[in-house]
Amino acid sequence: MELAPVYLAFILMLAIFLGFELISKVPATLHTPLMSGANAISGIAIVGALLAAGSKMPGLAPILGAVAVTFATINVVGGYLVTDRMLGMFKKKGD
After folding, report:
1. I need a surface site. Which of 33, 34, 82, 93 has the fewest CB within 10 A?
2. Could you report the per-residue pLDDT of 26-40, keeping only the tens digit for each?
3. 35-61: b (≥16 Cβ within 10 Å) or e
4. For 2-51, how does the pLDDT look when each residue is reduced to its tens digit (9 = 90+)?
5. Around Cβ 83, how many Cβ atoms within 10 Å?
6. For the chain, give me the number of helices (H) and strands (E)?
7. What does the angle CA 83 – CA 33 – CA 82 come to, to the nearest 5 degrees?
8. Rounded CA separation 67/77 (Å)
9. Residue 58 has what DSSP assignment?
10. Model confidence, pTM
11. Are 53 and 69 in contact (CB under 8 A)?
12. Taking the mean position of all CA atoms in its chain, how far away is CA 74?
């Protein structure tokens, strides 16, 4: 089981590369719908962070969970504000 960190590092590097390649090829017209989907995924991350923050595990788990809740909430709120602003650019002046 000593190779587990190597596999995790490989998966992380693969995810970084794949994410960069996919994001760089997204056309501007699809940016807003994809950002809304990313916000939904961040909402799921908040649920996991709340579980970690409320756990009775000793050590840093509750503290790291609270930090994760904070950052995930900032990500969700900021993402929705940016998405709302971008969608507002497509509204007509009279609306």
Report:
1. 93
2. 777 777 677 777 777
3. eeeebeebeebbeebeebbeeeeeeee
4. 667 788 889 889 999 998 888 788 777 777 677 777 777 888 888 888 88
5. 17
6. 3, 0
7. 10
8. 16
9. S
10. 0.60
11. yes
12. 10
The closest of 24, 40, 42, 28 to 86, measured between CA atoms, is 28
Residue at token pair 């970084």: 16
Q: Are 53 and 66 in contact (CB under 8 A)?
A: yes
CA distance 40 to 46: 10
CA of 63: how far to CAs of 54, 70, 75, in Å?
9, 11, 18
Rounded Cα gap, residues 77 and 26, in angstroms: 23
Output the CA torsion 61→3→6→42 (10° steps). -40
Place of tokens 């409320």: 54
> pLDDT tens across 55-82, in order?
888 888 888 889 989 998 898 888 888 8
